[in-house]
């Protein structure tokens, strides 16, 4: 079975459910976005969270995708950086508990990264992300041995701020013969570093995952199918997720559209795209078609939006696996 390693910000999500969106305005966080925050803003948010019921979960886009794959039985690993603190311990313990190979590096002087996650009444989530130790992963810390024995590298777009580090990771992965997957991460990140995203996708990336806004930010196309075609011209496989309207995927001349899983109630959209990538890669690495892979992705994303955070109980995973087997047997 193919082995998949993730490279991303090792973050712990601190999740709070909002009664309305007033707090987002108060904190200056545009609904649905991911904003990087400093110590001062983190303290402001923490003072609000101390009066609310919060929930802890491991986070970070690549971390979520790797967790989803591990829960499906795929051999996985994760590269990231944490601080010497309880949040770092929480992240590391969660990797080990789920059988994920721990390639975490330690920061001597910065605390672990925290994603303060605000869940609106409609399930939309907004992140105020304090990167801390996660952002100090440097190119020189990435060595060939980290990529040995793996077949795929999954990289989150949130890391593109450090061009040197991303290039080093992709160069090492290429030399080790890995296929490279890139999740575009957030429309505002794509907009602010468009040229670099183009370079990565044209030169290194085999599989691109984007949502509708990210695909538009990258191509300038508001029609997701048009955007899909443009991205697919630059890599092997392109995937554009359109929320409740499903997902488009394209490989060469093959193009598919798969419906989203119907759900009664969206509780929290955190990790929906990340878990879609887990399911899609699970199907693909097991030799299934684009359509079946996308259907597996929809099963995972449709389930994770029905829970708070990205941790699902074993009973739900058992049900997910049954549904996956049903789809793959068709």
The H-level CATH homologous superfamily, spelled out, is: Ribokinase
* Percent of sequence in beta strands: 15-25%
* Portion in helices: 25-40%
Backbone CA Rg:
18 Å
Fold-level CATH name: UDP-N-acetylmuramoyl-L-alanine:D-glutamate ligase
Order of helices and strands: EEHEHEHEHEEEEHEHHEHHEEEHHH
Parts with pLDDT < 50 across at least 5 consecutive residues: none
Summarize model confidence as the mean pLDDT. Answer: 95
What is the strand and helix layout of this fold?
Layout: E1 4-7, E2 11-17, H1 22-27, E3 34-36, H2 39-49, E4 54-59, H3 61-71, E5 76-83, H4 86-97, E6 101-107, E7 113-119, E8 125-130, E9 152-156, H5 163-175, E10 179-183, H6 187-192, H7 194-203, E11 207-211, H8 212-219, H9 224-232, E12 237-241, E13 247-251, E14 254-258, H10 272-285, H11 290-304, H12 314-329
Parallel strand pairs: 1-5, 1-9, 2-7, 3-8, 5-6, 9-10, 10-11, 11-12
Antiparallel strand pairs: 2-4, 7-8, 12-13, 13-14
Helix pairs in contact: 3-10, 8-9, 10-11, 11-12
List keywords for this structure.
330 residues; alpha/beta; UDP-N-acetylmuramoyl-L-alanine:D-glutamate ligase; 9-stranded mixed β-sheet; 12 helices; 40% helix
Description:
- The strands form two sheets. Strands 6-5-1-9-10-11-12-13-14 form a nine-stranded mixed β-sheet, sandwiched between helices.
- The chain has helices at 22-27, 39-49, 61-71, 86-97, 163-175, 187-192, 194-203, 212-219, 224-232, 272-285, 290-304, 314-329, and strands at residues 4-7, 11-17, 34-36, 54-59, 76-83, 101-107, 113-119, 125-130, 152-156, 179-183, 207-211, 237-241, 247-251, 254-258.
- Helix 8 (212-219) crosses helix 9, helix 10 (272-285) packs antiparallel against helix 11 and helix 11 (290-304) packs antiparallel against helix 12 (314-329).
- By secondary structure, it is of the alpha/beta class.
- It has a single domain, classed as 3-Layer(aba) Sandwich (UDP-N-acetylmuramoyl-L-alanine:D-glutamate ligase).
- Strand 13 (247-251) and strand 14 (254-258) form a beta hairpin.
- The longest helix is centred in the last third of the chain and has 16 residues, at 314-329.
- It contains twelve helices and 14 strands.
- It is globular and about 50 Å long.
């Amino acid at each position: 079975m193919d082995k998949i390693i993730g490279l991303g910000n090792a973050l712990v999500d601190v999740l709070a459910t909002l009664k309305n969106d007033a707090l987002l305005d108060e904190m200056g966080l545009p609904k649905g976005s991911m904003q990087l925050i400093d110590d001062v803003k983190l303290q402001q948010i923490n003072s609000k969270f101390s009066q609310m019921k919060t929930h802890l979960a491991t986070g970070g886009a690549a971390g979520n995708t790797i967790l989803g794959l591990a829960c499906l039985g795929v051999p996985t690993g994760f590269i990231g950086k944490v601080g010497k603190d309880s949040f770092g311990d929480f992240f590391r313990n969660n990797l080990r508990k789920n059988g994920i190979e721990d390639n975490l590096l330690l920061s001597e002087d910065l605390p672990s990264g925290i994603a303060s996650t605000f869940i609106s009444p409609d399930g939309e989530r907004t992140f105020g992300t304090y990167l801390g130790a996660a952002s100090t992963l440097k190119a020189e810390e990435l060595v060939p041995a980290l990529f040995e024995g793996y077949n795929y590298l999954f990289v989150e777009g949130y890391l593109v701020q450090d061009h040197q580090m991303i290039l080093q990771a992709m160069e090492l992965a290429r030399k080790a013969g890995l296929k490279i997957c890139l999740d575009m991460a957030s429309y505002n990140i794509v907009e602010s570093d468009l040229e670099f995203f183009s370079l990565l996708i044209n030169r290194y990336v085999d599989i691109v995952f984007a949502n509708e806004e990210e695909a538009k930010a990258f191509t300038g196309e508001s029609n997701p199918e048009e955007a899909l075609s443009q991205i697919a011209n630059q890599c092997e496989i392109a995937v554009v997720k359109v929320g409740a309207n499903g997902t488009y995927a394209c490989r060469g001349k093959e193009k598919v559209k798969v419906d989203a899983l119907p759900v009664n109630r969206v509780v929290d959209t955190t990790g929906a795209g990340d878990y879609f990538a887990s399911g899609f890669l699970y199907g693909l690495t097991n030799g299934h078609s684009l359509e079946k892979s996308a259907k597996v992705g929809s099963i995972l994303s449709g389930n994770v939006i029905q829970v708070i955070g990205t941790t699902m109980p074993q009973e739900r995973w058992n049900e997910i696996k049954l549904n996956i087997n049903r789809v793959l047997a068709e």
